[in-house]
Amino acid sequence: MSNSVAKQLEEHPLVPMVGEVSKIVDETPDVKTFHIYYEQGKPFTPMPGQVAMLSLLSVGEAMFSVRGVDENHLEFSLKKTGILTDALHEIEEGQKVGVRGPYGNGFPIDFCKGKDMLFIGMGIGLAPVRTMIYHCINNREDYGKMQIIYGARSPQDLVFKEDLFENWHKVPNCGVDVTVDRGDDDWDGNVGFVPPFVEGLAPNPENTVAIICGPPIGIKFTLPVLEKLGFTNDQIITTLEMRMKCGIGKCGRCNIGSCYVCLDGPVFSLEQLKVMPDEY
Amino acid sequence: MKIIKRDKLKDLLNSFAKNAQTLAPVKENDTIKFLPWKGQGEIDLSQNALLPPKDLLFPQTEVMYRYTDGGVQGEITDVAAAAERQVIFGIRPCDVRSLTMMDDVFMTKGYEDDYYKSKRENTILISLGCNEPQPTCFCTSMGIDMMEADGADIVMYDLGEKLALEPKTDAGEQLLNDVDVLEDGAAEKPVAKECQLKADAEGLAEKLAQMFHHSYWEDLSRTCIGCGTCTYLCPTCHCFDIRRKNIGEEGFQFRCWDSCMFSEYTRMAGGHNPRPSKKERVRNRFLHKLQYFPERYGKVACVGCGRCVGKCPVNIDITRIIGELREVSVDE
Ligand SMILES: Cc1cc2nc3c(=O)[nH]c(=O)nc-3n(C[C@H](O)[C@H](O)[C@H](O)COP(=O)(O)OP(=O)(O)OC[C@H]3O[C@@H](n4cnc5c(N)ncnc54)[C@H](O)[C@@H]3O)c2cc1C
Ligand code: SF4
Ligand code: SF4
Ligand code: FES
Predict the structure, then answer these.
(1) Does the interface predicted TM-score (ipTM) exceed 0.90?
(2) Which of B72, B115, B238 sits opposite A94 (nearest CB)?
(3) What's the gap in Å between B275 CA and the centre of ligand 3?
């Protein structure tokens, strides 16, 4: 990371660093992955689970999971849902975009060290989970067994297919299980919702941390399954989304009780969530 | 201590204004506002300004940076410059206290907001003690001394025909030394009349932590019309939105005050809204002031200025609400 870049973000935490989109990957009909290139070195190295504000200067900015790829690249995966994400889905390689961050706490790496890791992703929710999966892959000796469970609505809606069907199968002591709500003629994998799929796979809770992200409804129905399997609240980690504007605990927008999701989150254990007001 | 005759006040402000933007409470169209002093106008020290001076540090709209965006190429051309020196004359003790809360928000917990900080560090505060509270004032309940103002550079007392100024910081001392319209003197500090309105928020946060699902909030929200007046007038409310304005291939990003009383405030992409009705929004406003802020920053986010009490169109009075919250039983 170049010093001047880091200094700018420190001195003006609300002003983005402009970089260039160097690669766009079509994941699904409504999800694209963007690689953003910084000639002088990427502006920051995010911890797994952290987020950043991505902007098109004349359109707006919004918060997304961010992954550091190499010295010069940051990576975001975006689902098309509104004004900014629609516009970003229209751009081509070479487009200038702004990024500011990294924000939030990230996944509790020290807590996870030495444990088996269960990853459950649903839909675009695999994006934050994947930042931790990559962290574990890159520090493989620090973690035990890895088990990755992913579900999407249909085969077309599967994101990060290269990871799911190639890369992660090569990782030592790592299982990958994929399901879709509805199959099609070409799909010979599992069909069914994530909660019963998890129940059938019956991951062992002993010395295991479960990281689960996805739409609220998916999380809601998967939690009782994990509980039934014997996972306790402190073993279950998830991320929350709230509307955000500043990302640095000033604009007041993302509070749940006295906690700001942009600063104190977006990662929370179920144990923490149980004592917070259920206003999210 | 320095003394100035009331009829020489304009000379004093003129001297300040030579070296720094000077803001003073001026009566315009029947309302008292903090306006830049340009040598003219009717200085009104009879009661506090309707709008708190918070917008001098955290403007209602504020340009953050400018950019050019010609399709593919975009760049940031200019980040808002550091603030000029300013003197706020006649800020009341409650509003001085409110700035300590703004400081907590904008300058602590890991990030310093450079826009706020640069204004704050270049601002000199001259407080004016309140001899007589308004009927809506309850600052003394919030632990404020109506004559003193911790954090002011100069504390000023209203002695009728005269005003007395007592510097409290080096910056304040310097400012007074630089002007020649003041006389040395001594004066008795006036004795303030008591606030009639009272509220006891001491220890309420612990109780409120158990009242999130209480039916009280539903009942309270029935009368609120969600106009947001209370949050706009409140010197401790700090929420903002970030937006942009494009003019051809140029544009600027700005922030502007926002209010948790509006439904749009928390509505997320996809339409989900964690605070879908007035019940959740009214609850958030009061819990933010009385529970969340104390939990996060160790102080109640109300200074008893009474602006919301006086201006809420449906008379939602925070002192009454504090009283009722004390009374209701936690388990309904
Ligand atoms: C911590 C965190 C992490 C996240 N990570 C990711 C991620 O990795 N990937 C990802 O894809 N998303 C992620 N999100 C979600 C993402 O931030 C939102 O999808 C994004 O804000 C959408 O922005 P937008 O401008 O496209 O949508 P917006 O335009 O803000 O909102 C879209 C919705 O609101 C409606 N709408 C917009 N404006 C108006 C209006 N003026 N009036 C009426 N209706 C309107 C639209 O019809 C649409 O339904 C994350 C969010 C958070 C908080
Ligand atoms: S809540 Fe009302 S009385 Fe308290 S500081 Fe805000 S405007 Fe003043
Ligand atoms: S001023 Fe009164 S009516 Fe308006 S939003 Fe505030 S409490 Fe509700
Ligand atoms: S996004 Fe502004 S406080 Fe969290």
Answers:
(1) yes
(2) B72
(3) 16
Q: Which of A176, A174, A116, A125 is nearest to A152 (CA)?
A: A125
Backbone region of residue B306 per phi and psi (left: phi > 0; alpha: psi in -120 to 50; beta: other values)? left
pTM (2 d.p.): 0.94
| Segment B21-33 mean pLDDT | 95
CB atoms under 10 Å from CB of A217, counted, come to 9
Nearest CA in chain A to B74: A96
Strand partners, B69: B74
According to the model, what pLDDT value does residue A1 have?
43
Q: How many other C-beta atoms can be found within 10 angstroms of the C-beta atom of residue B295?
A: 15
Judge contact between A125 and A64, C-beta under 8 A: no
Cβ–Cβ under 8 Å, residues A267 and A239: yes
Length of chain A: 280
| Tokens 């903002």 found at | B240
State which residues of chain A have pLDDT below 50.
1-2
Quick: pLDDT tens for B186-204: 988 999 999 999 999 988 9
Q: What pLDDT is recorded for position A10?
A: 79
Q: DSSP per residue over B70-133, as a string?
A: ETTEEEEEEEPPPPPPEEEEEE-HHHHHHHHHHHHHHH-TT---HHHHHHHHTEEEEEE--SS-
What percent of chain B is helix, strand and coil (3-state, nearest 5)?
Answer: 35, 25, 45
Count the neighbouring beta carbons within 10 Å of the beta carbon of residue A116: 19
Contact between A248 and A102 (Cβ < 8 Å):
no
Interval B118-158: pLDDT, tens: 999 999 999 999 999 999 999 999 999 999 999 999 999 99
Ligand 4 geometric centre to CA of B230 (Å): 21
Q: Which of A64, A99, A219 to mutate to test the pocket of ligand 1 (most atoms within 8 A of CB)?
A: A64
Which chain B residues touch A242 with a CB distance below 8 Å? 266, 268, 274
Q: Mutate which of B118, B268, B297 to disrupt the A interface (most A C-beta within 10 Å)?
A: B268
